[in-house]
Design a protein that fits this description.
It is built from six helices and seven strands. It has a five-stranded mixed β-sheet with strand order 2-1-3-4-5, with no helix packed on it. A two-stranded antiparallel ribbon has the order 6-7. By secondary structure, the protein is α+β, with helices and mostly antiparallel strands. It folds into two domains: about 1-95, no CATH class; about 100-195, no CATH class. Mean pLDDT is about 75; it is low at about 1-45. Helix 4 packs antiparallel against helix 5.
């Protein structure tokens, strides 16, 4: 029987905060390893919700911050299909489906339409990557709290080797992407139908 492997990657700001605290880092509850049989290309930390809340609640309360976190966890166990989940602070989760094969956290309303177009078109992985990045560009143009750097992870089923990259604000590729996206938006506006007499009720 072949070994079952799970590759996982998590970026959770509140866990980073817990590690940054010397007192929390010395806590025996902090375990910088994945569970048995799990490898972590970017690192995963197991920390019980109660332990985490006790470790950071006082510091967070001083600045009026909330110690809860929602995060996306993706991975593949050898022999099973890959999966991706959105885990909520309460511990419940939802997973991507055939009807909605993407998950979003944070500021999502501006880029959601672009992702839904990709789903409707049933594009491949390469085109989906470009559309996902374009979704981020659209969001950053509408919300000043969103912007580069963008962290990109591409995973091909069965590879057990996620490709990871960071796209910074001065990236030549990002400049080309933004320019092409703006160009086609302007062309689309020019092609929109003109409102003619009788089109609208007054």
């Amino acid at each position: 029987m072949s070994a079952r492997r799970l590759h996982c990657w998590i970026l959770v700001p509140v866990l980073t905060l817990a590690i940054a605290s010397p007192a929390a880092a010395a806590s025996p509850q902090l375990d910088p390893t994945c569970p048995p049989g799990v490898t972590a290309p970017t690192g995963v930390i197991r920390l019980a919700p109660t332990d985490l809340r006790e470790a950071v609640s006082a510091s967070l309360a001083e600045v009026g911050a909330d110690g809860t976190a929602t995060f996306i966890l993706g991975g593949e166990i050898e022999g099973d299909a890959p999966d991706i989940l959105m885990v909520y602070p309460e511990g419940n989760y939802i997973r991507a489906s055939d009807d909605r094969p993407f998950l979003q956290i944070g500021e999502s309303k501006y880029g959601k339409f672009t992702l839904e177009l990709a789903v409707a078109s049933q594009v491949g992985l390469t085109a989906a990557t470009k559309i996902a990045l374009t979704s981020m560009v659209s969001t950053s143009g509408a919300n000043l709290s969103v912007g580069p750097p963008y962290d990109l992870v591409i995973y091909r089923n069965g590879s057990f080797e996620p490709f990871e990259a960071r796209i910074n604000a001065d990236s030549p590729f990002l400049s080309r992407l933004e320019a092409v996206w703006a160009k086609h938006l302007h062309e689309a506006i020019a092609d929109l139908p003109t409102i003619e007499e009788g089109d609208l009720e007054t």
